[in-house]
Amino acid sequence: MRRFFFYGTLLDPDVVAFVLGRRLPPASFAPALLPGHKRRRAEGKSYPIVVRAPASAVAGAVVSGLSAKDVERLAAYEGPGYRVINVGVKGAGRHRMVSMFEPLISHLQPAAEAWDLTLWQRCHKRAFMGRLRRAISARPGDSRR
Predict the structure, then answer these.
(1) CA–CA distances in Å: residue 56 to residues 1, 22, 40, 50, 51
(2) I need a surface site. Which of 25, 66, 82, 141 has the fewest CB within 10 A?
(3) Predicted structure pTM score
(4) Domain assignment present for 50
């Protein structure tokens, strides 16, 4: 089982449930901070990326109990603009190493403004979920609902 740091749309329970094909128990999500980074909206997109910023930290969650199949689905969701790296996060009074999908800056550029989950849920989630459903249903061999 693997642990990943989620910092964007995967913090939304509906998005992660759709991507994985199942709901994770709330105990799977533990609040954490990713030091040395900041979260920005990806240029021309509604979702965020993280970029290095020594004096900043990104709030997110460490998600535990992910199977190899879960990680495959997450990688398909993130697509070729990301790679899996190991990062150190702080949570529950300790430092630990987890995996994270890091954006490849050659594919995604940060916009000037920060990204906010609540604002994204209110303004962009509905359209995003529609695009996600269409993309996944078009993928051979990956059936949902």
Answers:
(1) 29, 33, 12, 11, 10
(2) 141
(3) 0.91
(4) yes
The answer to whether 60 touches 5, Cβ cutoff 8 Å, is yes
Angle at 110 between CA 107 and CA 113, to 5 degrees: 155
Q: For the chain, what is the domain count? A: 1
pLDDT in tens, 84-138: 999 999 998 899 999 999 988 777 899 999 999 999 999 999 999 999 999 877 7
Residue 145 lies in a domain: no
Alpha carbons 8 and 94: distance in angstroms, whole number: 22
| pLDDT tens digits, 43-67 | 999 999 999 999 999 999 999 999 9
| Domain coverage including residue 105 | 2-137
